Amino acid sequence: MILLDQNIRAIVQGITGRIGSVQTKWMLEYGTALVAGVTPGKGGQEVHGLPVYDTVREAAERHGANASAVFVPAPFALAAVEEALAAGLRLVVVITEHVPVHDSLRMKRRAQECGAVLLGPNCPGLLTPGVGKLGIMPGSLFRPGPVGVVGRSATLTYEVAGNLSEAGFGQSTAVGVGGDVVTGSRFVDVLRLFEADPATEAVAMVGEIGGTAEEEAAAFAKTMRKPVVALIAGRNAPAEKRLGHAGAIIRGGLGTPQSKVRALEEAGVPVADSPADVVRLLRPRMNRPVP
Amino acid sequence: MMLLEHMGKAEIAARGVPVPRGHVCATPEEAAAAAAELGGPAVAKAQVPAGGRGKAGGVIPVDGPDAAAEAAGQLLGRPLVGHVVRSVLVEERLQIARELFLGLAVDPASAGYLALLSTEGGIDVEDVAAQAPGRVRRLWIDPLAGLTAEHAAALFGDLGDELALTPPSAPLRRRAGEGPGVRASLSDILAKLYETFVACDALIAEVNPLAMLSDGRIVAADCRMEVDDDSLFRQQAYGAYREAQMDEREREANQIGVSYVGLGGDVGLIASGAGLGMASLDMLGLADLSPANFLDTGGGITRELMRRAVQLTLYPEGVRGELINLYGGINPMVEAALGVVDALREMPVRKPVVVKLLGNRQEEAWGILEAEGVPVVKRVRTEDAARKLAEILTGVVG
Q1: CA–CA distance from A65 to each of A19, A87, B368 (Å)?
Q2: Out of A159, A260, B28, B310, which could bridge B72 as a Cys pair, Cβ 3.0 to 4.6 Å?
Q3: Do A68 and A108 lie in a common domain?
Q4: Containing structural domain, residue A92
């Protein structure tokens, strides 16, 4: 497993909001080690049994927190991440959608300076089956096992993980890096962690059109010991149209499905035709027979 | 959103970048008045939020008010590079000695900004960048540290001399002074362009050409700027502009709170996520179905959002049926199911819909849909849902 293990003690920023509160309940039900929540001005309240503080520093000092899931509205996301990093948290997961790109760049550079891991914005977070989840991934689709999963799009990552689970391939950890143009972590950052993780035997990477993250990942996959298989969504999508994700736009010939598939196949990463097809490609590449 | 040339120019001019004198005109009469005010030779430029305008005939040199009115008459209301021309910028015509390209862009891969400079600006700068990448200088800027004097020095350090030595710029050397003067002007323009780029939440801010005039001045002859849609809460001046750029269905989608793109086929699509939506387009294609649209609900599904999303995508004439593909991670599945049923009940004649839905309270959501006679796919297989819809539409299964 990567990033989210037994040592995590997490807080929820924006815990008193509608979504923050519901997701806190589901994270707790999944067994996640949540220790507190933060909403400025709401200190002293309690949400699903967790104490709420005005500041991250207070929550972190009293409960030894080292990670955060951020559910605050987009205009306040940058400040929330800066506060979490300043309080010394090592893992910050930003679920919030529609964060301005300039803010995302700043939070990413701050995280780099602090040596912390930032996931998102606009990401589903991460889930280590049987250990916990930070974010919004539906726990019922995941099973413990040896496959690392990393994706840009949240719900497509669920679909791939669900297909893996159905076929008996459990997951070591599933990570959503987020669908925006700028994300705190990119595929290559997560591949590096999976490569070093003893519990991960192979990686399923859920990519899509737009940007160059898949091409970068292909270059890194060449150097990896562990097998990687990929899915590229949007092969049927029109160029120059923005399909929901700001990142998912083919522009000026960059980010086409063809360039991604070519780069991946040249790197020895087979590319699936559908989420279910990921399973077919993975099966012969696993060391152990799967039930 | 891509700004119009005159909007970008107004932003950089407000921060001190020299731009040509000019007026935005919505009628031939206004264009005539603008040309009269400007006096000398002018140019009429169609205002459209896309590149390739010049080559498509959207820039017309004009001499005098009558010619300006005629040019505006030709351009206004005409479709150009995918957009209808709604305004024309009438500007003083420049005596350009040399064209540069200066740009700033967000660079996702490096977690920073890139400053871009080419001494071969003009309409073919993309070709220069593609064929001779070495002739476009690129410099990384840390968003936390911002632009510094070192950046300008690295970008323009040897540039004055280079320009002075190149034949087309021989007059520049005499009239505009030696390299240091050019360098100082360029550094000043870069600083002001950077200030604009950050202040406007721009993803791209490009000046092409950055024109070196025969009288020695350096002027932004064009400006291309894209502002981050997600910054509208603090770039409020552009909210109305963005709405005006949308067609009727996109505007409605924006009001509903979903992301919509028309695709021209005859099968509707609703997906709770962009990647899942794109995979759904792929799976519809594999099932020989032609998508009428892309629609991503994002993470804000409510019963009302879902009802209106179905209305938007399934009701239009020419749409034969619809695939609805949902995961309940952050989205409430029971609310979603109720919204689908609301929309179907309001239809005088129902069209076939297949829903694939998994996640929170999925059994309850399945029950709501099945009680309404809606086929539900309960496995993590978008391809099954697409195939089922294809079967229903071709009459293989009723």
Answers
A1: 21, 9, 41
A2: B28
A3: yes
A4: 10-119
pLDDT tens figures, B262-321: 998 999 999 999 989 999 999 999 999 999 999 999 888 999 999 999 999 999 999 999
Q: Which residues, other chains included, contact B195 with Cβ-Cβ below 8 Å and sequence gap of 6+? A: B15
Alpha helices in chain B (DSSP H): 5-14, 28-38, 65-75, 125-131, 149-156, 159-165, 170-175, 179-199, 239-245, 248-256, 274-286, 303-314, 333-345, 362-371, 382-393
Rounded to a whole number of angstroms, the distance from the CA of A168 to the nearest CA of chain B is: 14
Per-residue pLDDT at B177 = 45
Chain A residues with beta carbon closer than 8 angstroms to that of B323: none
Backbone angles phi, psi at A56, to 5 degrees: -65, -40
CATH of the domain spanning B247-393: 3.40.50.261
Counting residues of chain A whose pLDDT is more than 90, the rounded percentage is: 87
In chain B, what are the domain boundaries? 1-20+95-245, 21-93, 247-393
Q: pLDDT tens across A182-200, in order?
A: 999 999 999 999 999 999 9
B274 vs chain A: nearest CA distance in angstroms?
Answer: 5
A271 and A142 within one domain: yes
Cβ A162 vs Cβ A141: under 8 Å? yes
Q: Is the pLDDT score of B342 beyond 60? A: yes
Q: How far is CA A143 from the centre of its chain?
A: 17
Partner-chain contact B230 A23, CB within 8 Å: no
List, by residue number, the catalytic residues of A: 245
> Tokens 């709405």 belong to which residue?
B243
Average pLDDT, chain B: 90
